[in-house]
Fold each of these.
Amino acid sequence: MGAAFVLWGVAVWLQLVGTVVGVRALVLGRVPGRRLQRYVAQPRVWGAGVLLLVACVFSSVTVAVIGAGLIALGHVRTPTFDY
């Protein structure tokens, strides 16, 4: 009983952190931390993906797959065509 309660508390804590980080990235266009700022090229797309990944707890697996895809797209650099 105690382990299940601790696991539930950790899951709720991760959901809250994911929600705060996702909203911050979506609204402000910035991600927290130097490492994430280096790796995330499109923070708003990344933030939407994080929010969808958090929301998949209350919905289907399809939402999780779409969220993971948006997170991956947030890491992709936009191409520059210098000819």
Amino acid sequence: MNKLLFILCFGFASFAFSETASNNNPDTIPPAPKSVLESLKLVSEENYFPIIKPGSWTGLPGRAVYQNFIGSDEEPELVIAFAIDTPDQYIFLMHSDKPKINFDKAVSNAYKNLESIDIDFQLVGTGNQQAEAISTSFSSEAILSQKHMRALHEILDAETLLVSVPTRGVLRAIALDAPDEVFVDFAETHIATWNEYNNARITLDMFVIKDGEIIDLLPVGGN
């Protein structure tokens, strides 16, 4: 870990964080098209999935149903909202959906739905020592699933992982004790993905995973 922290401090000093990158996918809650509104008439507590959002998300406060993920209740850094994926957009579970939707059931089923979907990983990068999720609507949320993270442990043959979810639909991981050159490639890709801003941003920070669960957060800064 000391070696990793040294690389973080030294390596990220040379990376440029873009705070003004173009936002092709604004992190907002647009009005639902009529076609979506029609399909929502059939929605129940069975249809939702968890979705990770930054604490600055416009769905907060008081509008969307969410759980605090990282940070304090007063100043959340990351939250977990709940949404239905439609061909047009995500439709979020809102406080205004009560009493039509039972929130406890919707949230419980959301995590079960995440466990039940297939998320495939492929080896990439220097020496094929990195794994990335093949992008789907909820690839980034695989970090919330012990099942999916255990699959990453097996693919990388690593007891402890370092996982990156900079933007929606992106998840990449390496072994925490990966060689320096693998880490540098991993870190550069992480920063480049954040700066490209092709999808809504999640976080610049990285997660340490052991036994399929998050055990630590490595703050990178610039969120």
Amino acid sequence: MKKILGIIFTAALIFTSCHDNIFENINNEVKLEKNGINGDGRIVRYKDSLVYCNGHIYYKTNESSNTTGLFNRQWVKVNATPGDKIDYVPSSTHFLAGGNGILFALTYTWYGDSSGVNSIKSKKIYYTKDTMSSSVEWKELSLPESLSGSGSIAVIFDNKAYDESNRKAYARIYDSTANSYSVYELLESGPVKVTDGTNGASATSISAVYFNGQTYFSPYYAMTANDKYIYYSKTVTNSSNHVSTSSIICCADGWGEFSTYKKVTPAADANPNQKQWYEYDENLKVYQLTSDTEPVSQKSYYSKSDSVSTGFRITSSASAPEEIHCNAGGILSLAATKNFLLIGTTGGLKRTELKENIPSADVSKFPNNGNKISEEYIFFVFALNPSANEGEDDEYCNTTIHGSISGSQDSWDDAGLYAYYKNHGTWNRDGTDDNSTNGN
């Protein structure tokens, strides 16, 4: 039996179980490429590159395949960060973040425990300012003593900004003096604390997104944005590494205080205006006090809560985020294109149409093999050009077998990084040109 260590990009590490027999490909219509990077990973933007890590680090140009005419075998492996090797177990990098023209890497040092399982000994942040190549110079980021405990660094992430000038990197780190976790912006000079409560920054933050000139933080990994809304889903990982998924996509356009509104059923003799009930204007997306002095049968009325909450909100109406119950299944990751949301789920890759920037409750089939590349967990989806229509530019996802492979319809050999290139026409494995490692 072969033990596989899987790093899942949620609130914490999730270890995959023992993996037994390798099953056949579930993709019957498209022959899979032999070269493809295996493992759990994600892509970040850095300078003129896309950078991917799954323990190892890889890079490729961020130019669209529509321009280069290139498809698979573009990724190049980067030299490892200078982490320690203990008991013959090499260190490995599992989180990246780009910001202020710097690429940060969170590297784990491992040791083999008495049961033969590799466990984390320490975590360190390294950084480089070099243009990406197979050999870049890594330096260890200096941390103050209060942030330097062996388990202090929970995760690093960036705000996913498309333009480099807006991109910032962050970490959630435990402060032994304050006895709490906080979010810190990562700079070459060291981490700078983000004031707790700033656009959602908290002790549980694990992701961020750039929206309308500001960075917003979230305890949920599934988070993306376009020019109109922040989209997120309330999937979390608890302390026992159990993934609790949500099928709801929330839409917000800011952070702050908001009220909640509840639909009421008026009695025939009710005076809606006197009761201070509200109507919802679909065009303006706001709740407005009704002027009706008697119920109108075609209208819906809402009562306003007495209490006020703080969080993501619809700013114009100071109301709770709009929630769409989507039939995609358990939502793990989101990426916005101009007309669709790409959705990574517990049952493969899905997409839902944006109608006036609001996600549909129904998923739409891909016109290619996107629905068939995996029936397993997809913790990462990525659109190279968020302003392009879905299918018009490069898109990526990472498939992960979560749990025992004996109960999976997917093959461990075929799990990993997948890409869609418009002029290639289908989703397929994506990797390096190293045939000796099958593209790893």
Amino acid sequence: MNYHAPANESIRMWVTRGVDLETRTALATFCRRNRFPYLYFEVLEPLLSHTDLVLALATSERPWPPKGIGSQTVEAVGIAMIGSEGRAHLTPVLTDRRHATNIGLVGAVTKQLLENLHDAKVPSAGYLIRQGDRALERALEQAGFAEADFQSSTDFAEYLEYSAAPEKVLDALSLGRLRLGDLLTLALDGRELDRLCAYHFALVAGLTAYLQDSIRYAALLPGLIDLVATLPLRACRLALPVLRQNEPNGSSGTGVADNPIADHFEPGRGHRSI
């Protein structure tokens, strides 16, 4: 018997591109409860109104009253930002602390998100990982990802994009053929479980430093900024409320918004082969 299966029975799975006030409040509470409140107030909240975000949510609901502030509790969330050229920038599935080992719930959220991207004909989905971080590279390679044509830098490290078509990842992780019920009860064989665990736990480990507000040590950056759109000589398409345009001599600004990720990026050092 899977320890998490009874709790998973009461969790609702859904995907949305529009977030109402009740869900925004639930997301803010989720981030605060798990000790990364800035992720909502400094990153997600500005993006929700101005950027094409796809959220795969796992929520539980109070019995009564069924509507209103506090009616939802976010148990897990997967996020994809649709950026330039229709590419999806992914953030690893975030779970409540009580679901830290609930790999079935993580698999179900991942499946919902990738299937939605596939149905929307998104050509590729990717993560931005620190160059030379072989543990992350290998975990992504086993899940169907490959090094793409985009590189960027922060003040502290070089980052590479690893991307794949959503359907390729679904196949590599066996999520395409598994039903949600099988995932939530963890009715997987050993190889499927090993692959899903390696994928998720490597991504979470890579994101931990960022969630602790230590971008200096981040092995993986969340997909919450359209880095392709910040490159020189391209139209700046970041859907954020305040933009700082590059000065002609490059002496001030980065061409990206006031954002915990963007503040450390040096778009001029990144490149994308066209």
